[in-house]
Amino acid sequence: MPLTKTRFAPSPTGLMHIGNARTALLSALYGQRFLLRIEDTDAERSRPEFVAALLEDLRWLGLSWDEGPRSEEPDPAWFQSQRGAIYQRYYAQLEQEGLAYPCFCSPQELEISRRQQLRAGQPPRYSGKCAQLSAEEAQRRRAQGLRPTLRFRVPKGALVRFEDGIRGPQSFATDAIGDFVIRRADGSAAFFFCNAVDDALMGVTHVLRGDDHLANTPRQILVLEALGLPVPQYVHLALILGDDGAPLSKRNGSRSIKQLREQGYFPIAVLNLLARLGHHYDSEALMDLATLKARFDRSRLGKSPARFDPAHLDHWQQLALKSAEDPVLWDWLHAETRAIVPERRLGAFLAIVRSNCLFPDQAHEWARALFTDELKVDSSAAEVARQAGERFFLAALDAAQLAGEDFDAFLAALQTRTGTKGKSLFLPLRAALTGRCDGPELGAVYRLLDPHRRHRRLAEFTYASE
Ligand code: GLU
């Protein structure tokens, strides 16, 4: 059995988003070898900085490729913009065999023809105007300085059949496909062509991609068959929808991997979300990449659209935080946060972060509240403290004096002195000590606060509530 080789073939025209990261991940999980190719034939829109960003995102996710570029330096082995000479050989082969022809139709002519067809209720396709130009005529037009595109001659009256790895048997009538451009007028390779040719030349056995490419597949199969190149198995992944049910886009919640990274999501959280967008695992546990791969099952790729729910991402983030080791969590914090957490408080602080935060920004807020004097008191906390009144906080000061670091003793003493318990005991304390009405377990807060700071905060509220 030959190895299963999959690939990720991004066009570096923007940042990697959830949709293409899902394609990359499922491709990496699906096969035995994983290849990366840069489809940068669109010279206007492709940018080296997007290649660099892509590599960075893939590395951050931990998706290493067995074959492909090592840096953003354009390498003819993996960057389509550098592979013109290779494509040229295949264009020549098709032209010699009469399977491709130069087309001199101008963009304006094509647009007019397209509109006419649409008006007549027909699907727009190339009319075939240049399909029968003689070699002399083509030569004459070239001599006039006209630069033709090269079109693939689609056979008439045939069916292209293939078995899609998810959607099963597919069949497309060639009569519905117009002759299509395989080389642009500027000489660059068109997607249908170089994408298929490279898959074949690079030994890709399985092509996983979004099902927005499904209708492109018959064209690509025709090209490969005409060239006598191997046709891979196509696996078209169901679309990802946003939480409004529309295809996932920037408008309904898609985010770039860079944004997720900068916000503080852990790569394992993102991976666990992506791996379940269109693929089902029995286990709801957080899995590392190796486990996601070991438990990946091709037959569990779904046909129906997957829905991206930001709350799911946060769920995985929470699990990732819970399972992160102290040093990992420590590194994840902002440098400013690390600077204010006293070393002896580190373990206790990280425990608080683990169960109360999702992002480093939130951890920073807690570090500031616990280890600095910059206490921000929100309006509901101020109100709760005001209602508790001066007597409550005087009693609290007294109880704290008596109990020292023993939180239970402190509570018992305060309860006896004030006659309050439950929420009316906890909430004003929390409000005074943290400036908020929610947050970590109160005993942990109490113990983490430096006794002077604790004292000052309780004292402040004796005046504030006057
Ligand atoms: N460069 C193409 C894209 O980003 C690749 C499509 C494919 O995977 O075949 O859409």
TrEMBL record:
Reaction(s) catalysed by this chain's protein: tRNA(Glu) + L-glutamate + ATP = L-glutamyl-tRNA(Glu) + AMP + diphosphate
Subcellular location: Cytoplasm
InterPro entries for this protein: aa-tRNA-synth_I_cd-bd (IPR045462), aa-tRNA-synth_I_codon-bd_sub2 (IPR020751), aa-tRNA-synth_I_CS (IPR001412), aa_tRNA-synth_I_cd-bd_sf (IPR008925), Glu-tRNA-ligase_bac/mito (IPR004527), Glu/Gln-tRNA-synth (IPR000924), Glu/Gln-tRNA-synth_Ib_cat-dom (IPR020058), GluQ/Sye (IPR049940)
A Pfam family matched in the record: Anticodon_2
SUPFAM superfamilies named among the record's database cross-references: An anticodon-binding domain of class I aminoacyl-tRNA synthetases (SSF48163), Nucleotidylyl transferase (SSF52374)
Residue span(s) of domain Glutamyl/glutaminyl-tRNA synthetase class Ib catalytic: 5-314
EC number: 6.1.1.17
UniProt binding sites for ATP: K250
Assembly: Monomer.
Family membership noted in the UniProt record: Belongs to the class-I aminoacyl-tRNA synthetase family. Glutamate--tRNA ligase type 1 subfamily.
Protein role: Catalyzes the attachment of glutamate to tRNA(Glu) in a two-step reaction: glutamate is first activated by ATP to form Glu-AMP and then transferred to the acceptor end of tRNA(Glu).
NCBIfam families: gltX_bact
The protein's name in its UniProt record: Glutamate--tRNA ligase
Organism from which the protein derives: Candidatus Methylocalor cossyra
Gene name in the database record: gltX
